[in-house]
């Protein structure tokens, strides 16, 4: 009984880290205590199976995850209303972190804004086409979205004031700066200042590069870690995305790899001819749910069902499909869905979700379903006649 409880706690601790790789005591105190209680076992498993580092103390726990695809833009940071961060917001976030690394133990939103504006007046940023001004509500909204993201991470802690008041009338907000959390944000093994490449793609590749294994055993261990990371991070891992060595290794070791993941996390392996998905029966370890309630969720489900029986479809065809669906379901969907052009936004939102879940691929105006979307196909109902018993 005790052993089963310990195993359940380790699973819960690892699941919490996979769901939110940065945890702070103020918001996740009980979870942090559980992580520290099983810290040695968690560190050993993560190091052996994924190569990820885990650090924890009385105030924070940080899982230093590395993305399998640095170019994957399907899971962006999001604002309060679910809107994805724009390029402007990401640059503002980087500038804010730079300013906070030099800030005092407390700062105000107004002071942070002034320091960001000063940092933004950089010739290299100007040459890249980035300019920043906080002289209107829209531009201040970008700063507020960044600050709220930092609050959710625990980098900042609000002491007095409110961001909405800053947006409306310029009222200030006071924050504590939590340097211990700020210092854990970078996940790479190399500091950005050590990168010597010039172009963005080359710099990103150099920043995320891993050491080259020199023996067969080390190469197999590195391959196992890469595949385990993808099974933990990606909704679906397709065989056709792997190189020949990775595909051969996963084919021979898939049961052992998925069993270790299942034992450690409670995820359930679903193995098909096209690939593998680690399914979460509790629907906790995802930032994109399918199916989902409300208008966007219903539209996404209908689009998935529509695509599941097709080899490809154009955006224009999907626009027409959603227009018809909006007319049929307008009494249940939000207002304005039947207005001209509304279908474009609905389709774009649905395609973003399905792409993030690796259920489709989008090539320009053409949408191609991927094998895992077949689970949303609906067969024609089969009606069986029942014979009446003789009287």
Summarize the structure.
The protein is mainly alpha-helical. The protein contains 15 helices and twelve strands. It has four domains: 2-64, no CATH class; 87-182, Arc Repressor Mutant, subunit A; 216-279, Orthogonal Bundle (Arc Repressor Mutant, subunit A); 294-376, Orthogonal Bundle (Arc Repressor Mutant, subunit A).
- What class would the helix/strand composition place it in? mainly alpha
Terminal Cα span: 58 Å
Q: Please name the CATH topology of the largest domain.
A: Arc Repressor Mutant, subunit A
Radius of gyration: 24 Å
**N-to-C order of helices and strands:** HEHHEEHEHHHEHEHHHEHEEHEHHEE
How would you name the oligomeric state of the polypeptide chains in this document?
Answer: single chain
Q: Give the overall pLDDT as a whole number.
A: 90
Strand content: 5-15%
In spatial order, strands of the major sheet run: 1-3-2
CATH class identity of the largest domain: Mainly Alpha
Number of strands: 12
Percent helix:
40-55%
Number of domains: 4
Poorly predicted tracts of residues: none
CATH architecture of the largest domain: Orthogonal Bundle
Number of helices: 15
What composes the largest sheet? 3 strands, antiparallel
Query: Shape from CA axes?
Result: globular
Task: Please provide a written account of the structure.
A hairpin with a 2-residue loop joins strand 11 and strand 12. By secondary structure, this protein is mostly helical. The protein starts with a helix and ends in a 22-residue tail after the last strand. Strands 1-3-2 form a three-stranded antiparallel beta sheet. Strands 4-6-5 form a three-stranded antiparallel beta sheet. It has four domains: 63 residues, no CATH class; 96 residues, Arc Repressor Mutant, subunit A (Orthogonal Bundle); 64 residues, Arc Repressor Mutant, subunit A; 83 residues, Winged helix-like DNA-binding domain superfamily/Winged helix DNA-binding domain (Arc Repressor Mutant, subunit A), CATH 1.10.10.10. Helices cover 50% and strands 12% of the residues.
């Amino acid at each position: 009984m005790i052993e089963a409880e310990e195993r359940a706690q380790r699973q819960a601790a690892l699941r919490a880290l996979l769901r939110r790789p940065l945890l702070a005591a103020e918001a996740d105190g009980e979870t942090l205590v559980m992580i520290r209680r099983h810290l040695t076992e968690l560190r050993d498993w993560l190091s052996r199976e994924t190569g990820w580092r885990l650090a924890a103390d009385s105030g924070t726990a940080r899982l230093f995850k590395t993305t399998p695809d640095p170019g994957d833009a399907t899971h962006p940071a999001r604002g309060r209303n679910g809107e994805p961060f724009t390029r402007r917001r990401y640059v503002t976030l980087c500038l804010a972190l730079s300013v906070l690394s030099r800030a005092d133990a407390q700062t105000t939103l107004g002071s942070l804004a002034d320091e960001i504006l000063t940092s933004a007046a950089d010739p290299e940023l100007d040459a890249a086409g980035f300019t920043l001004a906080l002289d209107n509500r829209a531009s201040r909204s970008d700063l507020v979205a960044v600050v709220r993201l930092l609050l959710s991470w625990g980098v900042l802690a609000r002491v007095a004031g409110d961001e909405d008041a800053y947006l409306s009338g310029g009222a200030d907000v006071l924050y504590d700066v939590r340097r211990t959390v700020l210092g854990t944000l970078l996940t790479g093994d190399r500091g950005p200042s050590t990168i010597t490449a010039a172009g963005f793609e080359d710099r990103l590749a150099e920043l995320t590069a891993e050491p080259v294994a020199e023996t067969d055993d080390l190469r197999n261990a590195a391959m196992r870690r890469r595949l385990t990371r993808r099974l933990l991070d990606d909704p679906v891992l397709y065989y056709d995305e792997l190189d020949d060595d990775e595909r051969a290794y996963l084919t021979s070791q898939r049961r052992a790899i998925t069993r270790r993941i299942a034992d450690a996390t409670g995820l359930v392996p679903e193995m098909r001819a096209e690939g593998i998905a680690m399914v979460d029966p509790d629907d906790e370890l995802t930032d994109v749910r399918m199916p989902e309630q409300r208008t966007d969720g219903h539209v996404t489900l209908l689009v998935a069902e529509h695509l599941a029986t097709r080899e490809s479809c154009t955006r224009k065809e999907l626009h027409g499909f959603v227009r018809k669906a909006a007319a049929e379901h307008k009494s249940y969907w939000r207002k304005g869905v039947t207005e001209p052009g509304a279908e474009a936004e609905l389709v774009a939102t649905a395609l973003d979700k399905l792409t993030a879940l690796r259920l489709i691929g989008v090539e320009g105006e053409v949408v191609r379903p991927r094998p895992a979307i077949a689970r949303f196909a609906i067969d024609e109902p089969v009606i069986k006649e029942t014979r009446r018993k003789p009287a």
